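Hello forum,

I keep getting stuck at the same step: I have a sequence, I want structure tokens, and every attempt I make locally crashes halfway through. Rather than fight my setup again tonight, could one of you with a working pipeline run this one for me? It's a single chain of 494 residues.
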Amino acid sequence: MVMVVRLAVAALIGLWNLSAAHAAERLRVVVHELDANGVSPQVARVVSEQLRSKLIETRRFVVPEREKMEAVVAEQSVSLSLLACSSQECAIELGRILQANKMVVGSVSLLNQTYSINTRFLDLETGAAEFSAEEKCQTADDLFLAAERLAARIAASVPQRGTVTAVSGENIIIDLGALDGVSTGMQFRVLRRVERVQGYWEEEQVALAVVTSVQPTWSRIEPQRAGLNFMRPVSIQQNDIVVGVQSITVDELPRYAFLSVYSRPVGAEVYVDNLFQGRAPESGLEVRLTPGKHTVRVSAPAHRTEERSIELRPDERRSFNATLQPRLRRIPFRMQVLTGGYVQDRPANAAFRSRLENERMNGARVGIGRVYSVFMSEAGGSWTHANMPADRSFGLNEVHNLSLHAQGGISPRLGWVLPYVALGYEFSRFYFNDQNVFEGQQSLGDAGKVGNSGWYWGAGAFLGHWFHVGLRQTIGRPETDFRSLTIGVNLAGF
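Reply #2:
Ran it on my machine without issues. Output:
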């Protein structure tokens, strides 16, 4: 049984070493269990796990999980209490047992309703603390964000470290890419392990290199030649180590603000900067945002939308209470944007009508307007013309009538049919091909007036989205009354 345990532990160590080899010479960092001061041990353990997880996500470190640490400690016949020992000496001993380069130690505290995570980054070779960092927050839920920020700060303080994976002519590839924070123009020192004394290895700088192109997981570098070394050949070999010239500086580490949105009525839709965030429950909808100005919009059916601009500071928590006012029910309508149709006018004046071929004027009609569920309005015009036989028209051959109209009416909706009754006013102007008709005689009586205007009434129906039919009768113009038939097409559906 003991042999099985030893083999299992050896396998774990081997896997860790293998992962480290594939992790581009990344530092091996152990996160010691954080002390609990004013919080439960469970909270401290959860925060410790969050810190491990976020350090792994930075792709800068090899970080063992707690289970692996327990297995290795047990194999070394060391008490598991070493994992919970709070002294720096215990932490350093644990780190060396785990063959780590660095260690994170610290505590989770609650004081005066403020949570804080204090950490120190230890170099296990010297036992010295390289730097310390602290993050504070107001609620236990925000401890996860605080741990995320600490991981970012730790990663920012440690130079990037990788290896040369391939050398082919001038193509030199390293196993660090955009996901590791590498960008074009970054400088790296190229190091090579040299055995100065038997069993003692040093890292010797062989070149400086600059990044020329970047991919997600790898980059291309080329050696720099400057000054007295301009003519000196630079030999970079596979498996050489690359280290960032300086630590990555983080100008603005991720900080957040929190907005809790409450709505009346409950369940209203919440949008921030035109992005849907969810529906606000009775307990409110919490939205995590970056600090700065944001536009918040809350909307619900049959209610007026409330929109407000809010500026949030880092780590600020604010509530947004939206009481939406009921919206007055609007009369629904369907819009008849543009209609066109065929018009046939029949004059009421018998003398005028007798001089028209077929006793009718034929032409085109256009209307622009709206059809409401109850009310309708329209404005438009028509152009009609007719031939006039020479033997009955005193030499006239054609007559044209341009009319402009405006009307309003009632249009109750009956399924896909919108019947209507309308009252309107129109202005008409007649054009004849021969103006001599007005010089000696009134061949058309009153119908020969150049201008003519007055009221009319009409009835008809819109049939679905695309067709309509209607009848009109002018009012109060006995000599020039027209009865009109219109058959049309809705050029734009209503």
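The two ends are 84 Å apart (CA to CA). If your local run keeps crashing, start a new thread with the error log.
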